Structure formats: structure tokens, C-alpha cells
Amino acid sequence: MNEPNQPTAVLNEPAMVYGQANYYALAQQSISKNYIKHILGISQLTLNELISIIPISIDTYKRKKEFNPSVTEKVLEIEQVYRTGLKVFGAGFHQWMNTENVSMGGIIPKSLLSNSFGVRRLIDEIGRMEHGVLA
Fold this sequence. Notes:
This protein has eight helices and three strands; from the N terminus they run βααβαααβααα.
């Protein structure tokens, strides 16, 4: 049995159960399909959108129940963006993520989820908006 504050070998629950401060350690674990389904619900991404972001194919997703740490890392990044955005802006955050954003160069914010640099840009942008810094 796992000791308190030690991540499990496979993540089965949302990161809020483990604590977001532990993302570094969590990203080194495998992740369950159930966890991924939970993040699909939070993010409101379609399965095809998610599969285009995480490093697996749709066939692999359908076939397996657990995925390696590279998948875990991407899913945790997506979770971090959506949890931060929803905490700050509520359900309206989903619309913001799906609407072309002039201040970000005319892109749809969720398109930035495809790599770590984009994720950091989203987290920074959410932080600026939270504090009223619009430029």
C-alpha cells in the first residue's frame, strides 16, 4: 500500500486529489483511461481534439487502459490550464478557449494546448487577465 503523500503507480483520480504542487512527480507516473475521461469532461474537448494533442493514436486509446508518462504529462498540462481558467473565470472559460483571440494574435486559445510553450502562454495569459493586465 502507498504511504501518505506518495503518488500511486497509475493516476486514477484528478490531480486535485493528489495536489497540483505535485505535478512534477505525477507526470512521471502512468495514467488511467478513467483519468483521461475525467479531463475530457472538465475541458469539454472532444476525444479527437484530445488525441490530436496527446502522443497516442485513437486506436491505442481504445485498446489500452493505462498510458505512459508522456501521455500523463500532456493530460496534466491540459488539466492545469482548464482548472486554472475555470477557477478564475467559471464556465465562460470554455467559450474563451474556443473563440479567436485578437490579443493573442488571432488564434483560438485551445490550439496552444499542443505543446508546452503554448500551455505556458495560456497560463500566463489567464494570470494576466485574472489581475486585470490586458496588454
